[in-house]
Write a structure and sequence with these properties.
single chain, alpha/beta, Rossmann fold, 2 domains, 9 helices, globular
Length: about 280
């Protein structure tokens, strides 16, 4: 008899637990149906197109985080993969960048924006110096050698440097053949983001003042740029940093950077050393 009672109690408890689980399941199912439809808010869809240009010796993969963030905000993005070490800056601007712009224009964008890393910014400057885009939007350059780089002056005669970096690298010095110095002031809405953390102490010995391991803070500036900001990142990885991406998005939307808790036009910073190389442009 006691055994029967225990069995009935156990069955009742088991049935109660089962019903409770079903109710809980239905509750969470209803909850997910209601709130699961609320997706993370993205930026409004826009007809604007953004062209991304990586730096010397890099690939479009280096700009992948930027590509995803821009796409999430509603931009149409062309993450250009181009042979940066095979041709001159003039050729890359006319042939490679020119085709990307044509691709953008096929969708009749309201504006075409550019976000570049290192030498990619010089390619955009060269193109815009020789071509007028009626639908040009804003440009953000990450660690561009806008005044050339003293590193190129020291390395350009090296066989290994020539072999690895190709003809475009030879044009990024500060001498008479410097393409950046020949281009002069910009005449478009430009925001420049550069770094102040070097991962290469040897490079930093050559570069004047604060630097990111490849370009000095002062060397990233160019006449008539609209805004300028210095972040605590290295040349090689600045494009992948969260705060860099946030600043890029802010400039594309508002034409200025957010300068709170950041360094504006500050060339005085401690140099950081590390065993890693950081010589891409």
């Amino acid at each position: 008899m006691n055994s029967l009672i225990k069995q009935l109690k156990y069955s009742g408890l088991k049935s109660y637990v089962k019903r409770l689980c079903i109710v809980q399941f239905l509750f969470f199912l209803a909850f997910s149906q209601i709130f699961g439809q609320i997706e993370p808010k993205t930026g409004a869809k826009t007809s604007d197109c953004v062209i991304l240009l990586h730096g010397l010796g890099r690939t479009s993969h280096s700009m992948k985080k930027l590509e995803k963030s821009l796409s999430f905000q509603g931009y149409r993005v062309i993450n250009l993969n181009y042979p940066s070490t095979k041709y001159s800056i003039e050729f890359l601007a006319e042939e490679t960048l020119g085709k990307a712009i044509e691709q953008c224009n096929k969708t009749s964008p309201s504006k075409i924006h550019f976000v570049t890393h290192s030498m990619g910014g010089i390619i955009v400057r060269y193109y815009l110096k020789h071509h007028k885009l009626s639908n040009l939007g804003r440009v953000v350059m990450l660690s561009p050698p806008n005044q050339g780089s003293e590193l190129v002056n020291h390395l350009k005669d090296s066989f290994i440097f020539k072999k690895i970096n190709g003809p475009a690298a030879q044009q990024l010095g500060t001498g008479k053949d410097s393409i950046p110095l020949k281009l002069g002031a910009v005449d478009f809405e430009l925001g420049v983001i550069t770094g102040k953390r070097s991962l290469n102490p040897l490079n930093s010995i050559i570069l004047p003042g604060a630097d990111d391991g490849a370009v000095s803070v002062e060397g990233a500036k160019v006449a008539s740029m609209k805004d300028f900001i210095v972040l605590p990142h290295s040349h090689a990885f600045i494009m992948r940093s969260k705060d860099t991406i946030e600043q890029v998005l802010h400039f594309l939307k508002y034409g200025k950077f957010r300068h709170k808790n950041s360094t504006r036009n500050n060339a005085d910073s401690n140099k950081h050393s590390n065993q890693f190389s950081d010589q891409s442009f």
